[in-house]
Design a protein that fits this description.
It contains five helices and two strands; from the N terminus they run ααααββα. The protein is mainly alpha-helical. Strands 1-2 form a two-stranded antiparallel ribbon. A hairpin with a 2-residue loop joins strand 1 and strand 2. The longest helix is centred in the last third of the chain and has 38 residues. The chain is elongated. The protein starts with a helix and ends with a helix.
């Protein structure tokens, strides 16, 4: 079952997990130590993140390590890009307005 990537990142715990594994691959037990919840709850979050392909798992001996699938994060970045352009345009307009007001003060 493929889940929607935005549903996956809507949960604060899953966003925190993404932040942790962005730095280094971690086991479910190591991840659970960062939360006030059970390892099973962390595993459930990892399953959702894995289903939407935001994280990948790698077996090393008897341990499973989860790491971030960086390329999948591009989907989020591409969606945010449209808003980034709107913000940049508005900041540019504000900068122009402030510059005009500053010049008008100098002329007085």
């Amino acid at each position: 079952m493929r889940r929607d990537i935005f549903q996956a990142i809507a949960d604060p715990t899953r966003r925190a997990i993404i932040s942790l594994i962005a730095l280094q691959a971690m086991t479910p037990n190591a991840l659970a130590e960062n939360f006030h919840t059970t390892r099973q709850a962390v595993s459930k979050h990892l399953r959702i993140l894995t289903e939407c392909e935001l994280v990948k798992l790698e077996y090393k001996g008897r341990e499973i390590y989860y790491s971030l699938e960086v390329d999948k994060m591009k989907e989020i970045d591409e969606w945010l890009e449209q808003f980034r352009k709107v913000w940049e345009t508005r900041f540019s307009q504000l900068e122009d307005l402030l510059s005009t007001m500053k010049n008008q003060r100098k002329e007085k």
